[in-house]
Amino acid sequence: MKLKTNYGMVVSGHKEATKAGIKILKTGGNAIDAAIATATTLAVAIPNMNGLGGDSIALWYDAKKNKITVINGSGKSPSKASKKYFNSKGLKKIPRRGPLSISVPGVVHAWETALKKYGKKNLKKVLESAINLAEKGIVVDKYLKTFFESKVYRNLIKNNKNLSDIFGYSKNFKIGTKIKQKNLAKTLRILSKKGSKSFYKGKLSNIIVEDISKQGSIITSDDFKNHSTLIQKPISTTYLNKKIYVAPPNSQGLALISLCNLFKIIKNNNDKTNLSDYLKNKKTAFKYRDLYCVDPSISKINHKIINNPKKNYLEEISGDTSTLVVVDKQGNAVSWVQSLFEEFGSAVVSPRTGVILHNRLYLEKISGNYNNFLRSNKRPFHTLCPSIVLDQKKLDLTIATPGDHGQPQTIFQILNYIYKNRIPLQKAIDLPRVRHNNGNKVLAEKGFNKKFHIDKKKFSIKVYKKKNRIFGGVTAIKINSNKTLSKGADKRRNCY
Prior knowledge:
This protein is α+β, with helices and mostly antiparallel strands.
């Protein structure tokens, strides 16, 4: 999935997407141009993980200005969404799938916003590869065959014929055959001519809203019209003598920042880390996350927890993703993450446009005693966690991973492998990882105990004998001391 040229480097979760990005770099595009070409092609190449009906969050590093900017392409909850509405339907929580799990898709607007603000190319130019792939068809490889023949896909198409109309039924998928997405190709062509305005305020938005309303969605045309991409300042901390940058709320980047800061204060923080310390700090970091990682208009971060985690400022509080990273010859860089949240998101399709809508609203609680609960016109909590690392105010690493709640954990472990243990990028990505979801249950890959001291009496540990996709799928580019580039891609996932 990784290619290098004299024009820069692109690493993504699919070879066709990587080729698209490289093509743009070769024709004079910068890192943003290449990132959007890669991202739009990923939306076609891996349709179960990301698409036009999803969201994105990205970091853009401008080498000339030595400045990092956040491009927040997450959409808001429907204007009709409320506790009262869901309760009237007899629902105590938001459904995991289906029309009521949909929030406004933001990725299309983010693509064009990024290009207009920071790129050299227009949307028409960077969409060429994506359109071509949608028309000619994506090749069924081992990964797609396994997914389309899986129980997950079978269950999804039981209640959604529109999915099976596009991708087929869950049987007899032959490696090498092609799946064409004709209506999606038409949609992409409209975007290439008329821009994202058509998707949010034009014919496309009207069609999408009409299609999904018939299936029970409460999203309106006004919800689409009122969408905008947020341009934000990142949040950061210094860890292992490096400056770590992430997106602010509603991204869960705060969890990564908190993890870094909490580990600063551990005594005897040597090459081997006690798992008890890791889990304690992880749990605390994620409580910070759950308290503050909400819509930026609502979130009021207590910066004391970022700058001085030694003190207790904490209140007790009772999916699938595609990634890419780019560095161009000028030293500009992008870490881009986009997602439908879970496989095929809501499983709701706008059949006339070929757009599959995400299920990001599912993460919202209908009610609660803290910030992260359902409100209308609110950007939901996001698991997306793109990251960039600077060394002495110079670009050192751009990195991203899928893995929902595991994203901050994966990136934190790799940062330690690279900067504490002095391990080369690809080897650091290949090394075993640990993941914690809840309680004292720990998921780990074989060999993890070489890096962690573990008391098996305290923890319930499930060890995976082989590398497993649950631990993420990292894409990364590191700038070496001699100014060459090192690429890293994760063997845990064939496509991501």
